[in-house]
């Protein structure tokens, strides 16, 4: 028999009684509420293992119950019930911290499974906070914002919808893309990735769509593009904001009409791919500035998932660091050093502008330099650049100094992409450092 206390906030008497009876039969203790105000009072005055709330209530929104629960009992999962046409609002509720949503009419078996999973995750120890799709690298962490992103991933993976992954460089967007593919009906097909920022603008169209023999000087044979290579599978376009305007229209056509032509060819080919795009830029601002076509943006932004920066889930850093140490040690065929609490503390206090990628770089240097089976704070301090009150700007400046002005090397040191570094150098007015300024 299941156990736990559940709050049900639902204004329809028949549905509320049915849910209360069904959950009580499973062994749960159920507290009912018929409106948002009663629900808020209960979550503020009593302890629960799960809150189940309708989104549309007579005296307000279930979002008020969600907010009260998150404030009073941050780790308690909240599941929202949605009616027809309110799924978009339910997704927004998940971004605000809801565990998941369930559409009406409620299928009791689905409700049982969802509650069992939610309550189980609420009670599990931090060490088990790993999401691992078969055939994809694990996603490590238990912070609410990361878990929300993972649950959105699970929801959309089984569909054919275009997904837009947003977040800073190094937050794990390719990791999420690979998990989306691994959980999708296309998992038997290829997963093809292309970093749009790594290809010169003049070559991007050819890289995406391929070319025919004789299309240009040196084209001595037909060359397939990434759309063709990904046929029947998933195409992941990283740093989609770097697509030049001239290519954006062709990508839009491939998304809308599911067709394309190779460079130098007139034959139309079918684009049988599921597209996942990623960006660390504000695409809406780029639309306003004329850098991104609005019609392409709306085609890409079908199902956005925001990945949190590492500094915004600092509580995950010790767990993530220990996982990364194990991966790094296996790669170097050595035993992973044990991360002491003082070392975990100083890692958690870092701002990590390069996010997980930068953390992994620091830990790899630590594994190589380790002189014993334990990593202490003293072993890491020399690998961390000291922070001045300027924070990110000082970290960037010191990386540029260490790289003697070589921006590609500085980007590697920080664990971020070259173009992301160029934007941050411009943002913090660091052009010319260290050779001509400071």
Structural commentary:
With 438 residues, the protein is an alpha/beta fold. It has 3 domains: 5-123, Response regulator (Rossmann fold, 3-Layer(aba) Sandwich), CATH 3.40.50.2300; 139-306, P-loop containing nucleotide triphosphate hydrolases (Rossmann fold, 3-Layer(aba) Sandwich); 310-381, Helicase, Ruva Protein, domain 3 (Orthogonal Bundle), CATH 1.10.8.60. The protein has 19 helices and 20 strands. The protein has helices at residues 13-26, 36-45, 62-72, 87-95, 108-123, 144-157, 173-182, 201-209, 226-229, 245-256, 283-288, 294-300, 317-331, 341-348, 355-369, 377-381, 392-402, 407-414, 418-427; strands at 5-9, 29-33, 50-54, 56-57, 60-61, 78-82, 100-103, 130-131, 139-140, 163-166, 191-195, 210-211, 223-224, 234-238, 259-261, 268-270, 274-279, 303-306, 338-339, 374-375. The protein has a 5-stranded parallel sheet, sandwiched between helices. It has a 5-stranded parallel sheet with strand order 11-14-17-10-18. A hairpin with a 2-residue loop joins strand 4 (56-57) and strand 5 (60-61). The chain is globular and about 75 Å long. The model has no long low-confidence stretch (mean pLDDT 88).
């Amino acid at each position: 028999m299941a156990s736990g206390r559940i709050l049900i906030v639902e204004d329809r008497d028949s549905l509320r009684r049915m849910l209360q009876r069904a959950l009580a039969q499973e062994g749960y203790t159920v507290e009912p509420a018929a409106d948002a105000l009663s629900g808020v009072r209960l979550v503020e005055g009593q302890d629960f293992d799960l809150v189940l709330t309708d989104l549309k209530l007579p005296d307000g929104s279930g979002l008020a119950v969600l907010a009260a629960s998150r404030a009073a009992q941050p780790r308690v999962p909240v599941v929202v019930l949605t009616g027809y046409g309110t799924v978009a609002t339910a997704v927004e509720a998940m971004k605000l911290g809801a565990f998941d949503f369930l559409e009406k009419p409620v299928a009791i078996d689905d409700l049982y499974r969802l509650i069992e999973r939610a309550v189980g995750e609420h009670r599990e120890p931090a060490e088990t906070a790993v999401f691992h799709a078969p055939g994809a690298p694990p996603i490590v962490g238990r912070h609410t914002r990361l878990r929300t992103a993972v649950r959105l991933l699970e929801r959309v993976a089984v569909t054919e919808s275009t997904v837009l992954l947003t977040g800073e460089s190094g937050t794990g967007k390719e990791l999420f893309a690979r998990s989306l593919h691994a959980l999708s009906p296309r998992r038997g097909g290829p997963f093809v990735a292309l970093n749009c920022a790594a290809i010169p603008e003049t070559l991007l169209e050819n890289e995406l769509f391929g070319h025919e023999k004789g299309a240009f000087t040196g084209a001595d044979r037909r060359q397939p593009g990434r759309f063709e290579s990904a046929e029947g599978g998933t195409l992941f376009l990283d740093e989609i904001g770097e697509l030049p305007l001239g290519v954006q229209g062709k990508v839009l056509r491939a998304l809308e009409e599911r067709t394309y032509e190779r460079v130098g060819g007139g034959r139309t080919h079918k684009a049988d791919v599921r597209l996942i795009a990623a960006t660390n830029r504000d695409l809406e601002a780029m639309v306003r500035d004329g850098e991104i076509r609005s019609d392409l943006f709306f085609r890409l932004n079908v199902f956005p998932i925001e990945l949190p920066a590492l500094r915004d889930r600092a509580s995950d850093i010790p767990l993530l660091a220990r996982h990364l140490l194990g991966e790094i040690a296996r790669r170097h065929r050595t035993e992973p050093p044990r991360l002491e609490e003082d070392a975990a503390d100083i890692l958690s206090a870092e701002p990590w502008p390069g996010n997980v990628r930068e953390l992994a770089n620091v830990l790899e240097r630590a594994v190589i330099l380790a002189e014993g089976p334990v990593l202490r704070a003293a072993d890491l301090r020399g690998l961390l650049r000291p922070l001045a009150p300027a924070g990110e700007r000082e970290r960037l400046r010191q990386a540029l100094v260490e790289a003697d002005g070589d921006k590609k090397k500085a980007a590697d040191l920080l664990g971020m992409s070259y173009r992301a570094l160029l934007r941050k150098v411009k943002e913090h007015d660091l052009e010319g450092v260290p050779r001509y300024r400071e």
